Amino acid sequence: MTEYGGVPMSPTRPNxxxxxxxxxxxxxxAEYLGAHPDIFMSRPKEPLYFLHENDKQRKxxxxxxxxxxxxxxxxxxxxxxASVWYLYSRHARERIKxxxxxxxxxxxxxxxxxxxxxxxxxMVFSGREEENLSEAWRRERERLGIAELxxxxxxxxxxxxxxxxxxxxxxxxEYKNTFGAENVLVLRQExxxxxxxxTYRRALAFLGVPDDGREQFEVxxxxxxxxxxxVRRLLHxxxxxxxxxxxxxxxxxxxxxxxxxxxxxxARLNLRRQTRPALPTAVRRDIDRLSQT
Length: 293
Prior knowledge:
The structure is a single chain. This protein has helices at 26-34, 63-68, 90-99, 112-125, 133-141, 162-165, 168-179, 189-194, 196-207, 229-238, 242-255, 262-269, 281-292; strands at residues 3-4, 7-8, 16-20, 39-41, 78-82, 104-109, 184-188, 224-226, 271-273. By secondary structure, it is α/β, with parallel strands linked by helices. The strands form 3 sheets. It has a 5-stranded parallel beta sheet, with helices on both faces. It is globular and about 50 Å long.
């Protein structure tokens, strides 16, 4: 056993990756699975370690630091993490395969009618998008498609490319080709909403762990907005200060922890639930056209 930042490290490595998609129930599934006695899910939930090395949203960038967030997983048959943007990243897919060749992959998907407005709302919530969905959709329709890029990560602001990101089947096929269809489980957000217990048990069966008899499943990661705009702007500014991010990363690596939790606590206290606006008719029609091609 080696040491990292003075903290004893376990050789435990993750063998489960919930790779996406965003706004499709991945947070809820990770929470539900993490409560099972035979399953360990990382904290932070989304280390984003396997994304392209130039991706500024990676929370953990060194392998020793990454492995340190699994030190509490001793004795668990399944050790996992859930980073939703892995689904779209060829770089992440190939790195995960090299890191854990026999890994199990869970992909949460959702119909574009729900996925597009939900992802757009999340981008607005995080201060990365304009509020008008119709305008945001029109702007992204004018951008490059999948076929013109070796990987979507090379496109600027690729997390807002809604017409590309909604094409889940394309990226699911890439994961099945890489890991084998038998090692990839696809779950629908709509099915989980209708019958969360059955969806949860499908995941347990796929992972080969016994049913723990769970019947109660709280709602997790509901649609949300900000209570105070000043606090939102302050948090957004903080998240863009690279000097501060680098300093905190160095401290966390030294301590062998994934997150302090202070930022998340303030952000959580500033939340309020809200109802998502209806999908604009023009966007709905365009989604239908794209889905038929």
